[in-house]
Amino acid sequence: MAGLFVTFEGGEACGKSTQIRRLVARLEKSGRPVLAVHEPGFTQVGRVIRELLLNAPLAYSIRSETELLLFSASRAQLVREMIQPALEKGVVVLSDRFYDSTTVYQGLARGLDLRFIEALNEFVADGCKPNRTILLDLDVTQSRHRQLRRVRPIDQQDRMERLSDEFFEKVRRGYLQIARAEPDRIKILDASGTEDQVAEAIWNEINGLLT
Predict the structure, then answer these.
(1) Contact, 110 vs 22, CB < 8 A?
(2) Which string of DSSP letters, residue by residue, matches 175-190?
(3) pLDDT tens per residue across all 211 residues of the chain
(4) Are 42 and 48 in contact (CB under 8 A)?
(5) Are 198 and 20 contacting, i.e. CB atoms less than 8 angstroms apart?
(6) CA 140 to chain CA mean position, Å
(7) SS3 state of residue 138
(8) Which domains does the chain have, with CATH numbers?
(9) Which one in 37, 63, 69, 210 has a CA-CA gap of 20 to 30 Å to 87?
(10) Which residue from 54, 62, 129, 138 is spatially nearest to 98, judged by alpha carbons?
(11) Three-state SS for 200?
């Protein structure tokens, strides 16, 4: 029995983690085996890479090309260690980010070579293509307001969160661009609604895939 692979994408503070937790609870209640993963940092190797990418003192000297390869290395480990085995067992796998993040953040926003990124994504994913991708779309102003409401020490944004609004405008446009290119896979949902509204919209998108 093949599993179901659903990925969640979007800019900062769009609600991915919250909605994945809610969906996990709903799937478990219905009796479906489910695994929720996130990028980077779900595996032991990934946690080391995450710290280097986002929080380590050296993080701010990382070049865009290095960033691309580090995110991809973390994903390669996650695919082979966690995602592939779970899908082979018929598990529903929910991933907070996957290769679309690389296409958007390092490709369309950073300006790195998209053809190389496409080839790298294919190599890293090793055939694990999402059955459905939920794009939680939120404008940058609302994203910044939500980040300010997060419970964390003052001035503790990670390296990615500290990037400019201009960068995140590119990220949002990039996501909408790839969603238009793959409308059957990538479903755009308005992330500005209430948690309940967004959760129901997500359920409506994936419920038909569970039968």
Answers:
(1) no
(2) HHHHHHH-TTTEEEEE
(3) 579 999 999 999 999 999 999 999 999 999 999 999 999 999 999 999 999 998 878 888 999 999 999 999 999 999 999 999 999 999 999 999 999 999 999 999 999 999 999 999 999 999 999 999 999 999 999 998 888 776 555 456 677 878 899 999 999 999 999 999 999 999 999 999 999 999 999 999 999 898 7
(4) no
(5) no
(6) 17
(7) coil
(8) 4-210 (3.40.50.300)
(9) 69
(10) 129
(11) helix
The residues facing 136 across adjacent strands are 189
Helix runs in the chain, H state only = 16-29, 44-54, 64-78, 84-88, 99-101, 114-125, 140-149, 165-181, 195-206
Maximum CA extent, the chain: 48
Tracing tokens 């405008």 back to the chain, one arrives at: 169
Q: Tokens standing for 55?
A: 């929080």
How far apart CA 105 and CA 112 sit, in angstroms, is 9
Distance CA 128, CA 113 (A): 22
- Given the structure tokens 């939920």, which residue do they identify? 134
Write down how long the chain is.
211
Tokens of 16: 């991915």
Residue whose structure tokens are 């998108």: 205
Residue with tokens 């609004």: 165
At residue 37, φ and ψ (nearest 5 deg) are: -125, 165
Beta pairing partners, 188: 135
CA distances from 71 to 12, 75, 177, 194, 210 (A): 16, 6, 21, 31, 30
